[in-house]
Amino acid sequence: MIQLNQYISEKLNIDKDVKDIPEEELYKQYFETLKDKFKKEGINATGTFRKTFGDYDSQWIRLSYLKPEDEPDIAGNGMYLLFDIDFKDRVIELKQNGHIYLTKEDQRKSNLAMTGIKNLYKKEGKPYFRKTRYKSIDDCAKKILSFYNSTKELLDKYSEGYPYKDMKLNIY
User: Fold this and answer.
1) Fewer CB in a 10 Å sphere around the end CB: N or C, the chain?
2) Domain residue spans in the chain?
3) Are 132 and 144 a contacting pair, CB within 8 Å?
């Protein structure tokens, strides 16, 4: 465990001596570092650990486009991005995204009330976030923030703006 913690610490640019820190505590520190970076940007960030085979090896982090008081009762209907950050392999993967209400015309065409953020990217022909490696905590935050801001621009373009409840452009 000590070697792994030192390896992780070096790769993620953490200056602290991690010999005596349990993995779970180390990951909490990484998450707090990321969360602080997102909060400085005014982003509502929450997260939980994922345990696989008895080890804490990755962090789920949810970045919401909505203020906590504007979140819907059904969390999956919110405006968010959910990333899985693997600290051991230094990999970020986008796991889920939120939904936005469609225009009335699109609702009639598709028989759906909402569509996922991913569909906005398809409409624009933009590349969607792929599973990617990162070098440090700063690099991880930079990649996530870049995609978050790109998505926010699309939400502003296709909706009436915050709180992104109504689409103004058709996507179907």
Assistant:
1) N
2) 2-158
3) no
